[in-house]
Automatic annotation (TrEMBL):
Chain coiled-coil ranges: none
PROSITE patterns listed in its UniProt record: MFS, SUGAR_TRANSPORT_1, SUGAR_TRANSPORT_2
GO cellular component: membrane
Membrane topology annotation: Multi-pass membrane protein
Organism domain of life: Eukaryota
Gene from which the chain derives: Tret1_9
PANTHER family the record matches: GH19118P-RELATED (PTHR23529)
GO molecular function, a single term: transmembrane transporter activity
Stretches assigned to the Major facilitator superfamily (MFS) profile domain: 64-505
Compartment annotation: Membrane
Organism: Zeugodacus cucurbitae (Melon fruit fly)
SUPFAM superfamilies to which the protein is assigned, alphabetical: MFS general substrate transporter
Protein name: Facilitated trehalose transporter Tret1
Membrane spanning stretches: 74-93, 108-128, 135-154, 166-183, 195-214, 234-254, 316-337, 357-378, 385-409, 421-442, 454-473, 479-501
Lineage: Eukaryota, Metazoa, Ecdysozoa, Arthropoda, Hexapoda
Amino acid sequence: MEYGDTYPYNQQTDHVVTMAVPSENAAQNCTPAVVHVKASVPPTGYAHSLQQPPQSVPPVEGWFARNRAIMPQMTSAGAAMLVLVSGGMNIAWSCGVTGVRSFRLERHIFICWYIAAIIGALVSAFITNRVSKRLIYLFSSFLVLIGGIFFVALAHEYGAIAVGRYLNGFAVGLMFVPMIVLIGEEVISSRRGMAAAILEAGSVTLGIYLQIVFTAAYAHKTTSFDNSFGPTQLHGIVVIVNAVLAFVMSYFLVVESPVQHLMENNELEAINCLRRLQRPFVVTQETYQRLEEHKRYIQANDPNGDKGIPALVKLCLIRGLVALSFSSVITSAVRFATLRYTIKTVTWPSYTIKIDTWPWILFGLFLWLGTYIAAFALDLVGRKIVPLISALLCGILAIAIGAICKDLINNFSQSKVGSVLFMLFVLGLFASFFSSSSSAYLTEAFPLHMKPFYIALSFTVQMFVLLIIGVCKKDQNTFGAYFITFGVFYLVFFIIGFFCLPETKQDSLQEAQRKFRNFLIR
């Protein structure tokens, strides 16, 4: 191939270039010798010209500058994070934070979202590596949009709300798997923990917080068919806005995984994706370093998924514990403690009881901020120490809450109930730490070929635990048993985690996966 020739877009990057150089006896006959040089030509997404050598880019200095340089990785993987925000709103709805007064709420409408989310995740496990992830994001955003329209247009219809929640749950489950895959394969190792915590756990807790705020805002207002606008319609409007923004962001910002392109033997497109996932958008030496890292990751993976069983067991356990940290029992306990602790006035003859809503707002705020605090610690302190410390503190707090709630006489003591309420605030904070660390582990623990299936199974376990809790009876008589069980599970995990949880801070996917291959760390 001569230097000026073009080559097909999907051609490999090794090229034989014919060069004319003077021979040893050039002075006698001036005949050039023909030398065939096998050179690695760094290509780009342009198919009509050979790529120039890697460009020299000054090193990025400063925390903000480094995060700005990897912002395309965050926006690509998290383009549909607003779908998860709507999912968090529906999880809070499933846990009783509804504000609905137009119809009788039955058990089915509370658990239907979990059922749909499980179905969506299982479907996604089979299509994540077969369908464009941008297409999955777009379709999920569209389903969320339709579900939001049901909430706004038919807010007083039981069936319409159920359909809207089914659509939202299926959409969240459908996009959860490819989102976790993209975070793991696109975000650099030194920022993977932060990205996972913010994009996954942070989005869900933000949605929970928003739903709490909306419900609290209408706590002392009445809605009827004549005055139809209430928390249900507000929920639908916010979901619609999230869906539209997620659709636009997914269309323009999603970059397909370079690992997927390498598995399809399309190295040119993999390099082009890596170029688009960094700033400035040029091919640099770092681009080729990441390309080689991805190649080693693919070569090190065995198509047999047996080596990922220990990681699957650990992550299923962790995600099951995450489900315990925010469930319908937790919200019932917050509601009960708020009712007992914040009763303001009782007037006669109308007999009006006024209850403050600030405990709800504060609980949701602690839940949300905890994910962001943990997000910045995961890549600095480490993956292991954050969940272990948070599990220890959550276990102690939960057992203390359970011990108070177990004695029903304490329910009539405002000081005892107040202590329970404030411990619930702190419990929400540290539970968010634990949830964030599980998000980071989820992006890096599983072998390549089985990754979508194992992520879907871990998500399914979490939803199944929430579903079981949702169908159980919840009142002050069950709080003690629930919180003591909660605390025991977390303390047991604290002990087991010392021997089973690996430290994967700033590890490549290949290194992290190797550390998860055994039940006990070495």
